[in-house]
Design a protein that fits this description.
Pfam families: GST_N. With about 210 residues, the chain is an alpha+beta fold. It is about 55% helix and about 10% strand.
């Protein structure tokens, strides 16, 4: 069985949980408490030198890190349902939307980045929250502008890679009080997603380490 090292509030772990659920792949969850610093313990760093989550350990002991790389692997391991369309142009558009979340919003809002800003540059807790809100708002405007004029999920009637990234990031947006008034389309996508068992089961609150 697959083993997922995860933290309940990690948006990158959330992405992988959704994909595993969508593809019907059984897995065990091993919690890694990022707030307590368990990601920096030597035995964990041996698995994931980035000192983050998720980490996916395959049945033969092979270790995979980085959520987008894991999602790509899972899409090849269990191609149905596909996370990316076959059409090259649509595939590029879906990846661009996914990368807007995964490469524009997430890296600058990562726990270790915000923590460094606080410890080294004196940001207060409120300033740290405003920092995260700013970059989420910027990214959501960009994501929404990339979408075609349609209902349902971002580019399809079924969730794709970009939808998985978006829904996980929206969890953080709600948590940190981002003004979602301009983003009705994104909230519609989230509403569609949360009707699916794969997304519901992956919700942070439904994880074994949720507190």
């Amino acid at each position: 069985m697959l083993t997922l090292y995860s933290y309940w509030r990690s948006t990158t772990s959330y992405r992988v949980r959704v994909a595993l659920n969508l593809k019907g792949l059984a897995y065990d969850t091993v919690p890694v408490n990022l707030v307590a610093g368990e990601q920096r313990e030597l035995d964990y760093v041996a698995k994931n030198p980035v000192k983050g989550v998720p980490t996916l350990v395959l049945e033969d002991g092979t270790v995979l890190t980085q959520s987008l790389a894991i999602l790509d692997y899972l899409d090849h391991l269990a191609p149905d349902p596909a996370l990316l369309p076959n059409d090259p142009l649509l595939r590029a558009r879906v990846q661009a939307a996914a990368h807007t979340i995964a490469m524009e919003i997430h890296p600058v809002n990562n726990l270790k980045v915000v923590g460094h800003l606080k410890s080294e540059y004196g940001l207060t807790a409120d300033q740290g929250t405003e920092w995260m809100r700013h970059w989420m708002t910027e990214g959501f405007h960009a994501y929404q502008a990339l979408l075609p004029d349609r209902s349902g999920f971002s580019f399809s009637d079924t969730p794709l890679l970009c939808d998985i990234c978006l829904v996980a990031q929206l969890y953080n947006a709600h948590r940190w009080g981002v003004d979602m008034t301009p983003f009705a389309r994104l909230l519609e996508i989230e509403e569609h997603a949360m009707k699916l068992p794969a997304f519901e089961a992956a919700r942070p609150e439904n994880q074994p380490d949720a507190t």
